[in-house]
Design a protein that fits this description.
3 helices, seven-stranded mixed beta barrel, DUF2071 domain-containing protein, Acetoacetate decarboxylase-like, mainly beta, DUF2071, ADC_dom_sf
Length: about 240
């Protein structure tokens, strides 16, 4: 993976990666969003990014398996779990990245570790994913300050064709991101670099059954996403987050 970096918008970071994750059966759902609703979640020191004048948010349910620290086998009790992200798009000094509003996960250990060491807004949720003949059934449910933050969908790839997003396209702008930004409780800003090969994307067939996750954060999105894709598997390397 490290030999192939020409697709990145900026060079590989220095030092060694510390963790490898594999994301399986990942659904990408993307919506244009309202700037005023998003700005409260953008940390100081980064700027909200826009595509053709609109900010965007994305949700991505997937199975994380395995999770391994460098030089170790998969972690016991946290080597496999479900995850559901809600994110938006930001940059700092011209370096594009992502900012998470929440990362729902089915592993309490993974939630505690990510909150402590990466300053990411992970939260534990009751989650279930089952593959059946009619597709992939994915469910997540949590209550936040008395509000339901639930997600339920049936999805699968629409066909077998795999493609890479065209540079300059909306899908490329949404998917090909190689760092994340997060702030701790004191407002200190951190950046974490990641690396993977270009996203192997497929057209997706999706039926959203419940989706109150964004609404629980004060985001009011259209009932149906503007863009959807599916990825069978993506191998990802992560570097330790550093204060910037």
């Amino acid at each position: 993976m490290l030999r192939h970096s020409q697709h990145r918008p900026f060079p590989l970071p220095g030092g060694f990666w510390v963790m490898k994750q594999v994301w399986n059966d990942l659904l990408f759902l993307h919506w244009p969003a309202d700037e005023a609703e998003l700005l409260p979640y953008v940390p100081k020191g980064v700027e909200l990014e826009y595509y053709e004048g609109r900010p965007w948010v994305s949700m991505s349910p997937f199975i994380l398996s395995p999770l391994m620290l460098r030089g170790t086998p998969p972690l016991p009790f946290a080597g496999r779990f479900l995850e559901l992200n809600l994110r938006t798009y930001v940059s700092r000094n011209g370096v594009p990245g992502i900012c998470f509003l929440t990362l729902e996960a089915s592993s309490r250990l993974a939630v505690a570790g990510a909150r402590m060491f990466a300053h990411l807004p992970y939260q534990y949720a009751l989650m279930k994913a089952v593959r059946q003949e009619d597709g992939f059934h994915y469910n997540s449910e949590r209550r936040r300050f008395g509000r339901e933050a639930a997600f339920s969908a049936l999805y699968d790839p629409a066909d077998d064709a795999v493609f890479h997003a065209e540079p300059g396209s909306l899908v490329h702008w949404l998917t090909e991101r190689y760092c994340l930004y997060a702030a701790d409780r004191k407002g200190n800003l951190y950046r974490g670099h990641i690396h993977h090969l270009p996203w192997p994307l497929q057209s997706a067939r999706v039926r959203l059954e419940t989706n109150t996750l964004a609404q629980s954060y004060g985001l009011y999105l259209s009932a149906e996403p503007a863009v959807t894709t599916y990825t069978t598997r993506l191998d990802v390397l992560l570097w330790a987050v550093q204060r910037v």
